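Let us work through a complete example step by step.
Step 1: write down the sequence.
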Amino acid sequence: MSSPFVFAVFALTFITLAVFYLFFYRNWRRERELRHPFPKAWRKLLKTNVPLYQKLPAQLKKRLEQHVQLFLSEKEFYGCAGFQVDDRVRVTIAGHACLLILARPYSSYDEVRSILVYPDVYRVQAPQSDGLVVSVNEQVRAGEASTRGQVVLAWSECEEGAMHPNGPHNVILHEFAHQLDYLDGTADGAPPLSGEQARDWQKTMTRAYENLRDTLRHHRKSWLDPYGATQPAEFFAVLTEAFYQQPRHLKAEQPGVYEALRGFYRLDPLDFKARNR
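Step 2: predict the structure and record it as tokens.
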């Protein structure tokens, strides 16, 4: 067998394997994972720790389970400050995170690689600039997200949100909303959209954001978390919490915002009928 022939066979094999890995391996691996039955213990945890799971129609329950199954097979969980991560922690976080992509492609979370979990709120040293001088301040945080595919969460805050599904706060929904915002490369309060939907989003959200800031400037109370007024990215994350946990109130107060979110998430949490877009 001649050397050129051997080289050609080797090169063709290498190219074939490279193409398979780049374009087909991830889907093949996911299809293989979903052939395994969803563990009954995980389903029980979804019922108790992700209250919205119980409100889903059968088709969406199945879809959430599939997303959770893939999420838990692909993402790494790390306990911080001595915290022990168990299935209760993993399923609770995955279940809430996957609510955001229930009617969206699972690939929306392809860039999420790891979840770091602290037992309680944690402290970080954060640089702060006044334009001339940069100083370092200590901040207390309940969670954070980054473009590096990392999400950090305080478990005590996760539990609080999970046990109060109609309350104003859910740190898991909040931080994973940031991850969706990062899909276009930057957290600016405008996740990837196109055409008329993008134009409507910009118009609706800008007006609502400025209205919130104006309300707070005049020392009037807002039903929406004031933290949403700090920057557009936080506004989107806070609205996402309201959309899933207080949809009726959000729709009554901000019907245009509600419709914009319904279009992006492709479902209506008032009845959980998925929309095809």
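Step 3: interpret the result. The radius of gyration is 21 Å.
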